[in-house]
Design goal:
The complex is a heterodimer of chains A (about 200) and B (about 220). Chain A contains five helices and eight strands. Chain A is of the alpha/beta class. Chain A has a five-stranded parallel beta sheet with strand order 5-6-7-3-8, sandwiched between helices. In chain A, helix 2 packs parallel to helix 4 and helix 3 crosses helix 4. Chain B has about 220 residues and is an all-alpha fold. In chain B, helix 3 packs antiparallel against helix 9 and helix 9 packs antiparallel against helix 10. The chains are: A alpha/beta (about 200), B mainly alpha (about 220). Chains A and B meet through helix 2 of A and helix 1 and helix 5 of B.
Chain lengths: ~200, ~220
């Protein structure tokens, strides 16, 4: 499996965010996107997730599901957690896993255990702290398998132990042949990820 | 199809839980209709003559009441991004949300109509046809309002804009809904023709509404 971005261009609100961006990523590889505030890190992730129209260039996934778009084979972990406060922890996760499922099985309890939220499964999400909400969003990546992970500042609001747990999950995903693109300002805990710098340093 | 059902179930569940406001529309409907006789005075003949119009205006306002939050909450908490990344076309996503919205706010309106019709001195034999017109007409109101909800999704206070955008479009539904109800209650015109046109309007909005709303969402979320 190979994700190729060729000469990507992104325009938002009439302003060019970036242009002429190239990358290629094989399965088992991680790409860390760096750059100043407003350089277009989040925009790049949203372009790949199909949430912002690609203004120019070509984005392709070789060796994925033939019928599915790149967005349908990607998990997007954005700044917002996409949780409903009146649903319980397990209900939130169950819904997203069922809704996003294209093929493969769903594992709710193992996913909650992986982020250490299993004891809170029946608690309404309204009572979670910011870090717990973040962990519940991360559980979505585990509950349903999709080959590409798009992570926007994945370590925000996480404590040290949770950051280490996330790094473990990311290593597990790469070892299983997945791809990761993470936009970040700090280290994400991966060994030798590829780097993509947007804009001047 | 399972994604469609799980989205439908989630939205129904959200509507009946804390802060969901499933029955707010029905209560609003109740209050509006109860206020009218106080304003008009106790003239039973007058009430029964304008009863269908009052019921339809009440149902129209009540079904718009919660519509502005249909996409806005999903937009604010990031759910809309993920809804667009599923395998299901956005048109079906939008349709599932609209059906859930109608089941949780539109259907209760229809169910309490007999009670309200009694207050407006509507005859018992006209109750059935009246409920039938509202059953057929309220989905049209929801699906037309859907387009306005999608257009105003990114606006902080889109509620008023929604009403301004949507109310003119609901005029045909209102005209034929009231005409059919009047035909059933007062006569002497036949019930069939206006009711058939109402069915046609409803079916058209069922098809056009989700397509237009999905296009509006795609355009709005850059």
């Amino acid at each position: 499996m190979q994700l190729i971005g060729d000469n990507l261009q992104c325009v938002r609100g009439g302003r060019e965010v970036f242009a002429g961006l190239n990358f290629s990523l094989m399965d088992g590889e991680a790409l860390v996107v760096t750059g100043r505030n407003g350089a277009g890190k989040s925009s790049l992730l949203r372009v790949i997730a199909g949430l912002v129209r690609l203004a120019g260039g070509r984005l392709e996934l070789d060796g994925g599901l033939p019928e599915a778009t790149v967005a349908e084979q990607a998990h997007y972990l954005g700044h917002q957690d996409a949780l409903k406060p009146s649903l319980s922890v397990a209900e939130n996760l169950q819904f997203w896993a069922e809704f996003l499922r294209i093929e493969g099985g769903i594992e709710i309890i193992p996913a909650l255990q992986a982020v250490d939220l299993a004891p809170l499964a029946d608690l309404p999400a309204a009572y979670l702290s910011a870090g717990q909400r973040r962990r519940l969003s991360i559980a979505r990546l585990i509950a349903l398998k999709r080959p590409i992970w798009l992570l926007d500042e994945p370590t925000s609001a996480l404590d040290v132990a949770s950051q280490a747990r996330l790094a473990n999950l990311m290593r597990g995903h790469l070892a299983g042949g997945g791809l990761i693109i993470a936009a970040t300002h700090g280290p994400v805990g991966l060994d030798n990820p590829r780097e993509l710098q947007i804009g001047p340093a | 199809m399972s994604a469609f059902v799980s989205l439908l179930k989630r939205d129904m569940r959200l509507a009946v839980r804390v802060g969901g406001g499933a029955l707010m529309g029905a209560f609003f409907f109740l209050i509006v209709v109860v206020m009218v006789p106080f304003a008009m005075g106790p003239d039973l003949n007058l009430l029964s003559r304008i009863g269908p119009a009052i019921l339809w205006i009440g149902a129209l306002l009540a079904s718009l009441l919660a519509l502005d939050r249909l996409f806005a909450t999903d937009h604010e908490d990031g759910s809309l991004d993920l809804l667009m990344m599923g395998g299901m076309p956005l048109e079906l996503v939008v349709a599932a949300k609209a059906i859930a919205h109608w089941l949780s706010t539109g259907l209760p309106l229809v169910l309490i109509t007999p009670l309200l019709a009694l207050m407006l001195n509507v005859e018992l034999r006209a109750m059935g046809p009246l409920m039938l017109t509202l059953t057929v007409g309220t989905p049209a109101l929801t699906f037309i309002g859907l387009v306005g909800a999608a257009l105003s999704v990114a606006l902080r206070r889109g509620g008023l804009l929604l009403a301004v955008l949507v109310l003119p479009l609901t005029v045909p539904v209102l005209i034929f809904g009231v005409a059919a109800a009047n035909a059933a209650i007062v006569g002497p015109t036949p019930f069939g023709p206006p009711f058939t046109i109402l069915c046609g309007l409803s079916l058209m909005s069922l098809v056009v509404g989700p397509v237009a709303a999905a296009a509006a969402l795609r355009h709005g979320l850059e």
